[in-house]
Every structure is written in structure tokens, then in C-alpha cells.
Amino acid sequence: MKLYLGLVHHPIKNKRDELVTTSVTNMDIHDISRSCRTYGVAQYHIITPLEAQHALIGRILGHWEQDKNGAYNPDRQDALAIARSSYSLEQSIKEIEEIEGVRPLICATGANFKEYELNPNQVKEKAQVDNKPIFLIFGTGWGLHADALEMADCLVEPIFGASPDGYNHLSVRSAVAIYLDRFTRAL
């Protein structure tokens, strides 16, 4: 079963639940690519509608594609090879569907879900029964906006920490690594 990952910068909500677009960060590109490559993710989609952000993504990825930079750190070049920019969640879904011949099972993550449908093992079972790849999507900012959640086939169980006071606000890079570990163990 194939696993794809998307880091969504739009549609995202801010702390007032308003629709916003967040900024792409260099660390998210590098660190999430490395986690994805480590756990066998087929593609890592960085999703933003902003041209300036696509230019930034292109410069970062292009830097490591250059011979001297790739030769200096071939592991980074290898990890970043699975990253790609996308203008929308719909575009990413369409690209995966073209590669796989079937629409992926779109699984949304979020720390603030009050309700969710499946845990990683249940997602695996559903994907196997439906014979579909999994597209695991993550939000930035204050999480995926309702517009993004409407595209999802399921909401995945949040990561529950062990903080005695209920604190639960991981960086997206940390959340991706934890989910990938859980998903690949389930797969």
C-alpha cells in the first residue's frame, strides 16, 4: 500500500477560525522530506496557492539538485527528490490519482479534532479493502480549514500526549514523524 503526504498551507484556519494561507518554511521542506523518505512515502506535496511560495520551494529544492550541493550532502538531495509543490489539494489528489489509477483515500490529521473516525490501523484496513493509496494531509497554522476537511474521506485519531494539563500543540514536523511511524507500522 502506498502512502502520500501533503502539507497544506491553504485552506487553513487561524486562531479565530478564519480562512487563511500560511507561509512555507524551509525547515518544513527539509525536515518533512527527510521523515517522508525515511518512512517510504511515495511523494510529499507542499500545497500553497501563492506564486511567491512556489518560487521559494523551487529555489530550495533546486539548490539541492545542483551537482556541487547534491555531492556535498547526497542524503538531503535524495530526501528532497520526493518533495513537490502543488497549487491546491485538488491538484495533489488529481496527480496521485493519475499515478495510481484510483483516487487516494484522503486522511486528514489535526490536534484539535473533537471527533475522528479512524486510527492508523483502521485506515490501513480501509485502504487495503478499498485497494487505494493513502494521502495523509496535515495542516499548518491552527489546522485544516473546513474546506479542506470536506475533501477528506476520514479524520484520523489525533496524537494524544502525556501532559497532565492536556497541553497538545506539537510542531507539524514532529506530528508528521509520529504519524509516519504509526502509519508505517500499521502498513
* Rg, nearest Å: 16 Å
Helix fraction?
A: 40-55%
Number of helices: 8
Low-pLDDT residue spans: 67-73
Distance between the termini: 7 Å
CATH level-two architecture? 3-Layer(aba) Sandwich
The CATH class designation is Alpha Beta
Widest sheet, order of strands: 5-4-1-7-6-8
Strand tally, please? 8
Class inferred from helices and paired strands? alpha/beta
Number of domains: 1
Q: Tell me about the biggest sheet?
A: 6 strands, parallel
> What is the CATH topology descriptor?
Alpha/beta knot
Order of helices and strands: EEEHEHHHEHEHEHEH
The CATH homologous superfamily name equals SPOUT methyltransferase, trefoil knot domain
Question: What is the arithmetic mean of pLDDT?
Answer: 91
Shape: globular
β-sheet strand percentage = 15-25%
Verbal overview:
This protein is an alpha/beta fold and 187 residues long. The protein has one domain: Alpha/beta knot (3-Layer(aba) Sandwich), CATH 3.40.1280. 44% of the residues lie in helices and 16% in strands. A 6-stranded parallel β-sheet has the order 5-4-1-7-6-8, sandwiched between helices. The protein has a two-stranded antiparallel ribbon with strand order 2-3. The termini are close together. About 4% of the residues have low confidence.
Annotation keywords:
6-stranded parallel β-sheet, Alpha/beta knot, 187 residues, two-stranded antiparallel sheet, alpha/beta
Please summarize what this structure is:
It is built from 8 helices and 8 strands. With 187 residues, it is α/β, with parallel strands linked by helices.
